Amino acid sequence: MTTERQNSTGLEKAARGIWVIVGFLVAVEFASGILQGYYTPIFSDLADHLGVSDADLNWLEAGQLIVSALCVPPLARLGDLIGHKKVLLLATGITALATWWTVVAPDFGSFLVAWSIQGAYVIWLPLEVAIVHKRTGGDTALTRRAAGVLVGALQLSVIIGAVAAGALVGVLPMTAILAFPAVAVTAVFVVIAVGIESDSGTSGGSFDWLGLTVLTLVLGLVMAGLVGVRVLGAGSLLAWALVVLGLLTLVPFWRIETAVDDAGRREPLIDVRLLVSRQQWPIQLTAFLFGMSVLGAQIPLSTFARTDPAEAGFGLGADASFVSLLIAEYVIAMAVSAFTFPLWARFLGPTRAQAVACFLVAAGYLMWLPFHGSTGQGLLNMAVVGLGSGALVASLPAAAAAAAPASRTAFATGMTNATKTVGGAIASAVFAIALAADGSISGEAHAPLSGYLTVWAVCGITALVAGLLLLLPRRTTRRTTSAR
């Protein structure tokens, strides 16, 4: 009895210690939410500040998402090798420096580089979950509860960030407005350094530098080709040749990753065999297609809402405060559907419930095609999109984990985030081309209405295709051995 009482007391102390750590990590997610919600209401003001068109802002999203996609696999692996706190500090330090760089950037090119590097923050949440999981001794239930608190803090801070930016624009100069996120991230660096205890690596082996290099080359060539299409025009053979060359580079990447896999001496950067397995590819492709709308459409939605119909002949003519309201409504709708998704899954089954969520996203964006003439229509459209998006954000990682071997669940979960990010990056580049009013990279004309219609159509159709993919019959029995 005494031993049991001592064990119980030890577990209670450990649990209290975890919640102290989670409290510090909540501050990190607060800064993450600021970064994700703060800028959206002021994108049109930012375009004026940088002297570029609304269309060119999409390159900011494309650049940051590409960096984010490239950051996740190597930084996650590095966390296992040298310790999660060290990598969290590294990523936060890089993000803080990049955010301060955006404050003092003298032109659009410099701002684009800084904004792209800022994407290192995408690794924060995975590292935080890893820190909590390790501190709990692998207690899945406690880790899940802690992750829920962190995600809740993130969603709340997205709303706070959006509302704060909407209130500050027009009151303070843009340089001062841009300084607030930089201060928040810098403060978080101190919080991590002081509040989180150091840890050691939990994994052996070496790092797949060759795989990372070739993957960077793949994404770099594709994005360079899309930039070429934007600058040189859709008839440029050089631009399209770069896109094709990037896609062809996937062949040696496949061979390199499977060779690493077969050798068994080191972990591949990406387990490509698992990704193309019959259980995984519909989920990962759904994440890719979903990323095109949930990540790629943020800037077009913001700039359309801020466009003055008296000047351009279309747009909502809204101010930054309305965009803040639009974001708040969208995030609340996402939270509602994320929390209620288990009920959807109980009545429809998990896969059918995810398909319904995709169809809601498709319906919301396709509603923009005929209904884009008033703020009320915009609020209704984004409420529908939010209901679908929240369910997918909450359920896709779990679906990928359930369809993966027990030894690869973390990888499968992380890849839903990576594929979603790549989808958003490519969509952002494509949307920049669609919204271009002229051929220059710094034109100041408003994006044409046809470009916005293209954005909404692409978002709606890709979400519709994702829903149909999920309904394809596939084996649901989880394998118990590694795909390797």
Indicate the overall shape: globular
Helix proportion range: over 70%
Largest sheet: none
For the CA atoms, what is the radius of gyration? 22 Å
Secondary-structure element order, as H and E? Answer: HHHHHHHHHHHHHHHHHHHH
- The fraction of residues in strands falls at under 5%
* Structure class: mainly alpha
pLDDT average, as an integer?
81
Distance between the termini: 46 Å
- If helices are DSSP runs of H or I spanning 4 or more residues, what is the number of helices? 20
In short:
The protein is mainly alpha-helical.
Topology:
Blueprint lengths: L1 H36 L5 H8 L7 H25 L1 H21 L3 H10 L6 H12 L4 H29 L5 H22 L13 H24 L4 H12 L1 H14 L8 H4 L5 H14 L3 H9 L2 H4 L7 H29 L1 H18 L7 H28 L6 H26 L14 H22 L14
Helix pairs in contact: 1-6, 1-7, 1-8, 3-4, 3-5, 3-9, 3-19, 4-5, 4-6, 4-8, 6-7, 7-16, 9-10, 9-11, 9-19, 13-18, 13-19, 13-20, 16-17, 16-18, 17-18, 17-20, 18-19
